[in-house]
């Protein structure tokens, strides 16, 4: 292992003694079991909140932010093109921006943000 690689591993790990052998345990937040459980709960809550949106608003939000089933973030232009191809609608990026704004207003309702934050501890700034 190179010196640079060793330094990166040391900075992101904590040593634990066990059976006379030091084990390196990954200490990054994304691999912490507590954090992973919080993320899973947050995702479940987010899915629940998104289901309250109309199918069109849901699709726009999912595509914009790369949420399941979409694997990456899409621009308003890409979403408009996708709507044209799949729904045979004549939408442009401006109409997608309006749908986005309306969906975000709905998601910002106090009960949604309070419920999303719940016990996950995530700062929900929509």
Return the CATH topology of the largest domain: Arc Repressor Mutant, subunit A
Structural class by secondary-structure content: mainly alpha
Unreliable segments of 5+ consecutive residues: 5-9, 11-28
Oligomer: single chain
Q: CATH superfamily of the largest domain, called what?
A: Winged helix-like DNA-binding domain superfamily/Winged helix DNA-binding domain
The rounded distance between the terminal residues' Cα atoms is 43 Å
Number of strands: 2
Largest sheet features: 2 strands, antiparallel
**Number of helical elements:** 6
Tally of distinct domains: 2
Helix content: 55-70%
Shape annotation: globular
Question: Which CATH C-level class of the largest domain is it?
Answer: Mainly Alpha
Give the amount of beta strand, in percent: 5-15%
CATH architecture of the largest domain: Orthogonal Bundle
CA radius of gyration: 21 Å
SSE succession? HEEHHHHH
